[in-house]
Amino acid sequence: MIEHKKIKSIGDILHRVQEHGFVGRVREQEMFERYLKEMEHRNERILNLFGPPGIGKTELLGQFKRQAEKWGFRQVLVDFREIGPEFNAFARALSTQLDLPDDNHEDQDKAVLKGLHESAADGPLLLILDHYEEAGALDKWVRTALIPGLHIRTCILIGSRYPLLRSWITSPAWISMIVSMPLRELSRSETDEYMKRHGNSRTAEMDQAWLHTKGHPLMLSLWSGKMDRILDSAEEAGAPRVEPLLDCLLDYGLEESHRKELTDALEVAAFLRHFDRERLEAILRRELPFAIFDRVIQLSFVRKYSRGWQINRLIREALRSRVKTRTPERYHQLRESTVSFYTARLQQKLEQTQDVTEEVEELMQYIGNPVLRAHYRHVEGIHYMLEQLDHSNLEEAKAYIRQRQEYARPCRVICADPETGNEYRYRLTREESLLRLVPAQPIELAERYPDTVKLFRDHDGKLFGLAAVVPVNREHLPLLASSPVSRAYIESLAPEELAEIRQLSGPDRHKGHFLLALDMENLEDDHQRSILVHFTLKYMLSGERLLVSPPPHPYYQDAYRNLGFEIVPGAEHPHYGGEMSALTLMADSRGKGLFRLFEKWMTTPLPLSDSPATLSAAGDLSLFTAREKEVAEKLLRGLTNQQISQALYISEAAVKKHLTAMMRKAEVQNRTQLVSAILGELPASK
Questions:
Q1: 632 with 579, same domain?
Q2: In terms of domains, do 166 and 263 share one?
Q3: pLDDT surpassing 70 at residue 606
Q4: pLDDT, tens digit, 9 for 90 and up, residues 571-593
Q5: In this structure, what are the phi and psi dihedrals at residue 216, rounded to the nearest 5 degrees?
Q6: Whether residue 313 sits in one domain with residue 275
Q7: What range(s) does the HTH luxR-type domain occupy (predicted)?
Q8: Of 195, 386, 581, 672, which has the fewest beta carbons less than 10 angstroms from its beta carbon?
Q9: 618, 628 contact by CB (below 8 A)
Q10: pLDDT per residue over 280-310, tens digit each?
Q11: Same domain assignment for residues 449 and 554
Q12: Would you say 545 and 567 are in contact if contact means Cβ atoms under 8 Å apart?
């Protein structure tokens, strides 16, 4: 509720509401605050905010405006979306704000410059140029005449969809004066705070907002705003609730592209995670003019990566959704062409024993595995660096582990498959979130075996994760035989297999790798979870065996089961504690193994986290625990105990234990009666 004391106009109310509703951008605000304090001692005079449509540039400029006002800056704002690229309109906008006489003399540009100069001479001045991508021909005048003539006490803020053109950065002098500020989506915590400030404080509401907007400011604004009637209408029409929001975002973002040829090329690019001209032509099956391709890659929501270009994830999904709704035949044709293109590339590279990670990642969004699609959905270009843990970074690694143990908290992993809309939710306790870090004792491990522990760093150099990957060979056999995570696997091996391992020596001679630890700072972060998958895939696709023994939690079970890992018989262990034993799993990509893995990815296993939902037509299940409901779902499908153990990643002994408990609760004597009780055909005990 806005306090109306000291408010004299509706504009004051708007100002207060905007200030109250502004969330996030802490780093940018701190940088701007520092700049305002130190302006007299710095060369930088131009701050360039840029980012794709709806990322919040205008809102942040408004927040900067409020910050500068507190520091006594006079402010002048020119919005090129309103005035266009006409000098007369630009001059009028400045003259009005500077109270200059409305004289139409020939030296109007000099009058404007004089007014700005005099204004800054009386006190610091903030000149804000918003939607600068619309400046057109005025860009040269602003760069060559306006800015050089401004008073030294002037700060220039430029908001645009693109970074400033090359003409701004061809000179070292210009480079020294410009501070670039690219904007990204809000974080999960910032998104939650945004929802709370707009009256949506329930966990379910905040989860839905994050799931469907991923912190995109325009989408958040639409989601949290007064859109009830639009959303209700969508539901009545049978459309997903998020569809109207994506339409709004798409219409806003595609203002730059009106030509049909450009839209056609964009629709094809939306089916590719990364694209270039050759790939677009292969999908289109015709030549794409250079002029059209250049126009595509210059759009503000298209970014350059090492593998090519990429459309902003929200725009990409909205485009695909629109094609699917409006032209379903074209949708299926483009989808099939994309899958065929990358499948052919995958097969060719496999035959040539080349790395196929890129092809698998592209196909990930189309294969019949909704869990993998959900976890891998939000990767706009995986950026991380791996380095070996050694004496140079030992203290930093120790600090990371201490921090993880001290600040670990319960976490909720929420993701959705863009193809089906299915949502997957997992909860991990504080202790469960540390189970893939602490047991491996990575510091002691690195001291004994320096080649085994890797650190993950982001593009800013911050350490955010750790992995321990141990070769299965003679040198590392004592480690694998003693580690509680891998000991059960070594004990399960036949004597001849152990003898074979003892014959393998050296860094390139081994019988696969064992992943002893794989920890990320924040499992709620989509990017970090995608890095987990990417890192695992690198080993899986290398033509060898990869072994893991993750905690017996549905999140890990779903992840590895859907990646195609299989249970290693007789290698269970109770090391993680709790009622359930942990299994040892293996993915084997040797020889034809990679083809078999790919066949698994084309199937659609049921996630453990969603299993109870499939029992909605059954009888009273309130008697059963969550795990027993999962067993019940498999039982209704007619699976044997062995098949249930494979599907749920638990032992056959555990399946029998669950079935016995379920029969006792349902007061039945055998498996057939239990099925009938679950279906509601027999009265179950209350």
A1: no
A2: no
A3: no
A4: 999 989 877 789 999 999 887 78
A5: -70, 120
A6: yes
A7: 617-682
A8: 672
A9: no
A10: 999 988 999 998 898 888 887 888 877 889 8
A11: yes
A12: no
Name beta bridge partners: 158: 48, 129
**What is the 8-class DSSP label of residue 144?**
I
Q: Quote the percentage of the chain above a pLDDT of 70.
A: 85
Q: pTM, whole model, 2 decimals?
A: 0.68
Do 213 and 290 lie in one domain? The reply is: yes
Sign for the pseudo-dihedral over CA of 209, 428, 446, 510:
negative
Alpha helices for 368-508 (secondary structure H) = 370-375, 394-407, 442-448, 477-482, 487-492, 495-502
Structural domain that includes position 534: 385-595
Residue the block writes with tokens 């590279």: 349
Q: Assess whether 221 and 361 both reside in one domain.
A: yes
- Is residue 618 domain-resident? yes
pLDDT digits (tens, 9 = 90+) for 429-447: 999 999 999 777 888 988 8
CA distances from 377 to 148, 151, 587 (A): 46, 49, 23
Do residue 310 and residue 235 come from a single domain?
Answer: yes
* CA–CA distance, 175 with 160 (Å, rounded to integer): 17
Taking residue 63's Cβ as centre, other Cβ atoms within 10 Å add up to 19
Domain count across the chain: 4
Residue 30, token pair as written in the block: 């701190």
Residue 381, pLDDT > 90, answer: no
Of 386, 425, 372, 638, the C-alpha closest to 535 is 386
Q: Residues with Cβ < 8 Å from 42, sequence gap 6 or more? A: 35
Q: What's the whole-number average pLDDT of the chain?
A: 82
d(CA 624, CA 36): 62
